[in-house]
Design goal:
This protein is an alpha/beta fold. Helices cover 46% and strands 16% of the residues. The chain has a 6-stranded parallel sheet, sandwiched between helices. It binds flavin mononucleotide (FMN).
Length: 228
């Protein structure tokens, strides 16, 4: 079976989507030919696009961007659609990871891939949504299915079984087995603030919009009160 895995992260360096691909690949590689495509730099060339549309199975691993699909992946989806798939017997699966703790946040992006599947007459397999995606690289030395990687391991195992048997499965939305409040503190200190700083953004600016929305809401409530 020819399997194409698409890493839809726009990141140039290491990404959680890449880690997910690394988890999945050994579980589905026996007797199958696997090719991984990165969409983070330039658009894929004609040969690569033809390779994807001639697959038996296509797997998308990508991050959630503004409750949706990142633009680099959208470009690829449109590019594939234009070429038309030679077979209607192609299975499609996806694994979406997001920054907020709850994996459920990915449900719209999973639906978008599902719709793309329907438009192209492909067979929908299963979608997995993983919350607290930025935590996964910190957990990479813990075996899948254990400790904080328990839910992720179980979901990846179920997904790989469905891929190998070419069957569909219920969409799963999960988070690492870790306290939400703790990750909120840890992710601020070790992920979001340092990342903002490395992009020249001050911590105070992160709260500017929140403050503005808060003041706008108060203004609106006051105006409503005056009218009544
Ligand atoms: C422009 C942008 C938009 C994002 N939008 C969301 C979002 O709507 N919801 C969310 O939970 N995370 C959001 N995130 C966080 C990413 O989904 C998260 O960092 C993810 O783990 C990155 O995965 P990757 O390493 O595979 O690229 C956003 C990140 C960026 C840079």
């Amino acid at each position: 079976m020819k399997i194409s895995i698409i890493n839809g992260s726009p990141k140039l360096g290491k990404s959680t989507s890449e880690l997910i691909v690394e988890y999945l690949t050994p579980l589905i590689s026996k007797n199958n030919s696997i090719e991984v495509f990165n969409t983070n730099t330039t658009a894929l060339n004609e040969g690569q696009l033809s390779g994807i549309i001639c697959s038996d199975t296509i797997i998308f691993a990508f991050p959630l961007y503004v409750d949706s699909i990142p633009s680099n992946l959208l470009r690829l989806l449109i590019g594939l659609e234009k070429r038309q798939f030679p077979s209607q017997n192609i299975m499609v699966y996806c694994v979406v990871n997001n920054g907020f703790f709850e994996g459920k946040q990915n449900h719209i992006a999973v639906k978008q891939i599902k719709s793309w599947c329907a438009i192209n007459h492909l067979i929908w397999g299963q979608g997995i949504g993983i919350g607290a995606g930025e935590m996964l690289p910190f957990l990479k030395d813990i075996p899948l299915g254990h400790g904080p990687n328990k839910n992720i391991g179980n979901a990846i195992k179920q997904l790989s079984f469905n891929i190998l048997t070419r069957q569909g499965g219920e969409d799963l939305f999960i988070s690492p087995n870790w306290p939400r409040f703790l990750w909120k503190v840890q992710s601020s200190l070790f992920v979001w603030y340092p990342r903002a700083k490395s992009n020249g953004l001050k911590k105070s600016r992160l709260f500017e919009q929140v403050q503005k929305n808060y003041l706008d809401n108060i203004k609106q409530l006051e105006q409503k009160g005056k009218k009544q």
